[in-house]
Amino acid sequence: MEKPNFDHPLSVTAEEIWQMEETREFPIDIESHYKGLLNMMDVLYYRNGNSFYPEIKTRHAAYFLALAMPSFAIIDPCRTREMKYNLHVASLVIESDNLSKQLAVYDAPSIRRLEVFVILALYKLVSEKTINDERFHAYAEEVYGRIVENGRSAQNVFAYDTIEGTYEAYPNLAALLAFRIHDRCFGTDYCGCIEDTLLTFIREKLLDEETGLFLEFYKTGSLGIKGEHLSRSASWSGREQTAACNALAIAFMNYFDEAASERAWKAFKEKFTDQQLHVTAEELQDAETSSYVSQLTPIAQGLYGSLLAAKEMGDRDYFEKLQRHILTVAEPDQREGKIFFDALGNEQKLHGDFLTVARVHVGWKKILEHNWEDYYDFDYDKVR
Residue 189: phi, psi to the nearest 5? Predict the structure, then answer.
């Protein structure tokens, strides 16, 4: 008997991506990514975090898949209960010691803590369940406590650090989103205590006044704690402006400061478009260089992050340019219901996991303001 052929051309357009919320249907390659999402979460859960891919990169991949889940549920409400389950599983997977390598330079405990905090916030948003409430409270206190400790220490930086003494825009903005959700769900006032101060820090230390672009980092040389007197002059902002850090920062800043994101997005396109549209498959392949905050190399994070930023900013034309380039150089192919990026080497699946959230993302404003209470129990068995 001849084996059936499941292959389909991957020629989806930006128009089809934007119409998903109206049609309640996903283009066939995104549907395939979704199936891969379910498979990855189940495999990691039942294998207690053991992965076929590098541990830390897999952990970041699970996190970015989790970021896509509320958007999947908004586009197709009948998947809300599935996403509730997947977010719960993702939080447990990321906590697994099997997805950590304590001696690895890119295994930052602060980022791992932040990722679980954000996932638990999204879980609470889409769910009426209380099973994760205590964990959510505990992580909120840990992240908040770290911010306060940094502000009171000799570092004198009222913000959350990526690694000790290093501060970046995106992690702090992600933390603020999670705090917004916690305040909304439990009546707390974390954002009332820290939001203005933290956003002021980002604007003063991590935004270039001339261009409006985000700077890569702010570093301090003062690592004393609890008020120890060390020199506070030993601090500086990294002057480099990269596509990798700007794309994620813009995608998360837009919820809090649309004007700053609009200015940065305009400057981003002027500075990085030519670079992004000339990224090759060889440059996208995973190499020894990595990122503290994603499963990708800085070049790949910049390209896929740009797609996420374009979706957040509602820039369909720019999204179309980037997607067309990615689909060309990555040589995606659908075989037996899964997507393979044939040009991207052995760790190709990790690229697809980031690409998923970049393409389905409906915007943080929609996600946080969606009336989730009306859809808590939506699934195919109950609704269709």
Answer: -135, 40
| Residues 154, 156, 158: CA angle, nearest 5 degrees | 140
Cα–Cα dist 162/179, whole Å = 17
Contacts with 11 (C-beta within 8 Å, 6 or more apart), sequence order: 327
What are the tens digits of pLDDT across the range 267-306? 999 999 999 999 998 888 866 677 889 988 899 999 999 9
pLDDT digits (tens, 9 = 90+) for 98-141: 998 877 888 889 999 999 999 999 999 999 999 999 999 999 99
Please tell me what DSSP assigns to residue 344: S
**How many alpha carbons fall within 13 Å on the CB side of residue 44?**
35
State if pTM tops 0.85. Answer: yes
DSSP string covering 92-136, please? HHHH-GGG--TTSTT--HHHHHHHHHHHHHHHHHH----TTHHHH
pLDDT tens column, 43-86: 888 888 888 888 888 899 899 999 999 999 999 999 999 899 99
3-state secondary structure (DSSP) of residue 219 = strand
Residues in CB range of 67: below 8 A, 6 or more apart: 118, 122, 357, 361
DSSP character for 213?
Answer: P
- Residue (of 351, 383, 195) closest to 281 by Cα position: 351
